[in-house]
Amino acid sequence: WEREDEIQGRFRESRGAHFRVLFEGPTDDAMARRIVELLDSAYRDVGGTLRTYPSAPINVVLYTQEQFQDVTRLPTWAAAAYDGQIRVPVRGTMQSGHRAELRRVLTHEYVHAVVAQLAGRTVPVWLNEGLATALEPGGLDRASAVVLLLKDLAQGAAFDAAFHQRIAVRYDEFDR
Question: What share of the chain has pLDDT > 70, as a percent?
């Protein structure tokens, strides 16, 4: 908590209608505005699908990768987190090749925020994660990768190899 307070104590703020984005300095202002735009898009898309729109603003904290690791203590492969706030490591993610990934990650974490506002902590993790994954841009297409993984296993493929081929992450990395 002390490390989080130390880091966030020097952050600036950008507000949208539904989100409050905290970020480190003036050089990140354009990034924060872009993230508010991406989150507003997720608000409309997810809200339209679920037919629900949270009324309370959602806090979003932008970190460097090191700050994210210090505060969340999550594995290095974690792209973001939701624990009452959306927490995202964003350095380098605004380059053109990473915008789609940032949109996917923000939408995924936004779904967690919607689920939390609707049902609190009573939702099973598998349902929460499944819903967040399915509602990501392209989420239903990626879900088919799991089906292909299961079919590979049914045909006798080694789990580690099939996992790497279908999920695009080595299983030992994912497990760590």
Answer: 91
**Residue appearing with tokens 């979003």:** 60
CA nearest neighbour of 117 among 81, 85, 79, 71: 85
C-alpha–C-alpha distance, residues 75 and 164, integer Å: 18
Residue 113 φ/ψ, nearest 5 degrees: -65, -40
Tokens 């974490």, residue located = 109
User: Which tokens hold the place of 139?
Assistant: 């989420």
Does the predicted TM-score (pTM) go above 0.85? no
The CA–CA distances, whole Å, from 131 to 112, 115, 126, 156, 175 equal 8, 9, 8, 29, 21
HSE-CB at 100 with a 13 A cutoff on CA atoms is 4
